[in-house]
Known about the structure:
By secondary structure, the chain is an all-alpha fold. The chain has one domain (2-294). The chain has twelve helices and two strands, in the order αααααβαααααααβ. It has a two-stranded antiparallel sheet with strand order 1-2. Helix 3 (64-91) runs antiparallel to helix 7, helix 4 (94-101) runs antiparallel to helix 6 and helix 7 (151-175) packs across helix 9 (215-243). Residues 8-140, 152-288 form the EamA domain.
Amino acid sequence: MKENKRTAGHLMALFTVVVWGTTFISTKVLLGAFTPIEILLFRFLIGFAALCLADHRRLRPKDKRHEFLFAAAGISGVTLYFLMENIALTYTYASNVGVIVATAPFCTAILGFIFLRDEKLKAGFFVGFLISIVGIILLSFNGQRSFHLNPRGDVLALLAAVVWACYSVLIKKISSYGYQTIQITRHVFFYGILFMLPALFFMDFHWQFSRFKDPVLLANILFLGLCASALCFVTWNLAVKIVGEVKTSVYLYLVPVVTIAASVLILHEKISAVSVLGTVLVLMGLVLSDKGKAAGKNN
Length: 299
């Protein structure tokens, strides 16, 4: 029974990264009519509303200190991560951001080991991390240009990886208190949206609901809000609760692989030999990273 639960956790993590790996298509479509901050707020407002409908019961923190953890998860996993990633894209190459943000599993492993002490790391994890990063570099650059550092954007991308790692560790900690996963996600979304509001005054934001009359735009924002945000944050949080923050985070290596596959299947882009090699390396790294962890007290 326990093994079936763990398998379900891995499947939820896999499902989540498959969806997250295809969101670039919807985002690309929406960027023709919306700014990044508009997409971000609308998708999480939709996600929050969906979670309220799914479970409207009020979450009552068992300890006042738990409220701080929820707020920290909201500002890290929702507000800061997405804002930093979007802003980083305005200062540096998308390929740079893709590679740097892919260090999130490594950051998660380090933070999890320091603060939770529940997933011990072995040499295989670090070897797998390095192999996956090489694969992601090949996927991101496809051998067409060299890696150029752009300090402002690259540092923001690295900070985005760190705050996502913080989010994963916080969710693992919050889940250990026995709250329902949908309620956890809804409460985190609330704080994420709350901390997002001040950014509206400094970034290019307009409500203009008339844009949603376009069925294509409406369908894509609903996909981001209902599936990529509401549903996938729930499945991700469940996966973290079941299999641990480190084992779940290594699935993030697959995001660029899914993106490449989606480009071929949906946008009919051609796949190169370099992309195939990159995909193989990412998968090898994923396997090695997963085997490079010893079971901890919560696993």
